[in-house]
Write a structure and sequence with these properties.
Layout (H helix, E strand, L loop, with lengths): L9 E2 L2 E2 L3 E8 L14 E5 L4 E5 L34 E8 L2 E2 L5 E3 L2 E6 L2 E8 L22 E2 L7 E9 L7 E2 L3 H4 L4 E6 L2 E9 L2 E6 L2 E7 L4 E4 L4 E7 L5 E8 L1 E8 L2
């Protein structure tokens, strides 16, 4: 896939904490610009907080902690392992997410080990906080698991062969949706007998589900499957071949009730 300039970040729906990430990228074969204007993108952990820099750093001088493979504005790579423009390159990153207490206080910082084209560029370095241009922002509390994102920096950088392996204790996969992605589920659903099910945005990546006058917040556990934490409610949305939501099947404890989405 390729970053379309101006389209925004690409991000996973599933949220990840400690993990091993592999991806391959290629900066444009036709060289335009210089420094940070050449093949610029980034791999972000914590949704948009912690960046490993993607850049065309082949015979392209720029500030050290902004070059390819850098922990942006915090750690330059140990070596420039960049290949020429247009060639496929790889990142292999071992990510340890920061931890926060129930009171929001930082318990442990983020750590990263990274290889660029098979060459070690970071060995278990400790991040000082979120990355950002000309800033050293402090840590602020956030969930341990958040999506991984690829940056839209206005350059048509290509990506392929991306995989992620969760580390640490196994658990139920967690998903987070952007507000824009959640909108396709929102609407009224006809379950028959002159009864409607209503689905609305609830903020913070949640859906609000109303049936027979009772309302519940739904959490994602898959691309189209949600559940409530306070009551045993499961909700599976149905889609057509184009991905448009056409209906849902929900259960309260047991069984399954189908409802058709109204236009």
């Amino acid at each position: 896939m390729e970053c379309v300039p101006g389209s925004g970040y690409i991000r996973t729906m599933q949220a990840f904490g400690d993990c091993q990430l592999h991806l391959e990228f290629a900066t444009p074969a036709h060289v335009e610009g210089e420094g940070q204007g050449r093949g610029n993108s980034g791999v972000f952990f914590g949704l948009n907080r912690y960046e490993i820099q993607v850049l065309d750093s082949y015979e392209n001088p720029t500030y050290a902690d902004g070059s390819a493979g850098a922990v942006y504005i915090q750690y330059p790579p140990l070596v420039n392992a960049s290949r020429p423009p247009g060639q496929w390159q790889s990142f292999d990153i071992v990510w340890t997410a920061p931890r926060f207490g129930a009171d929001g206080q930082l318990l442990s910082k983020a750590w990263v080990t990274a290889f660029h084209n098979g060459v070690l560029v970071h060995l278990n370095v400790e991040l000082t906080g979120p990355t950002g241009w000309l800033t050293r922002a402090p840590y602020r509390a956030h969930p341990e698991k958040l999506p991984i994102a690829l940056q839209d920096h206005g350059n048509p950088v290509r990506f392929r062969n991306i995989w992620v392996r969760e580390l640490g204790k196994p658990g139920k996969p967690e998903f987070t949706f952007s507000e824009a992605a959640l909108r396709r589920f929102v609407g009224e659903y006809d379950r028959g007998r002159n009864e409607l099910v209503r689905v609305e945005p609830a903020g913070d990546g949640l859906l609000r589900f109303t049936v027979q006058g009772a309302t519940f917040d739904l959490f994602a556990e898959g691309p189209s499957r949600f559940f409530a934490k306070t009551t045993d409610i499961q909700c599976q949305f149905e889609t057509d071949p184009q991905g448009a939501v056409t209906g849902l099947v929900f259960s309260v404890g047991e069984g399954g009730i189908r409802a058709k989405k109204l236009k």
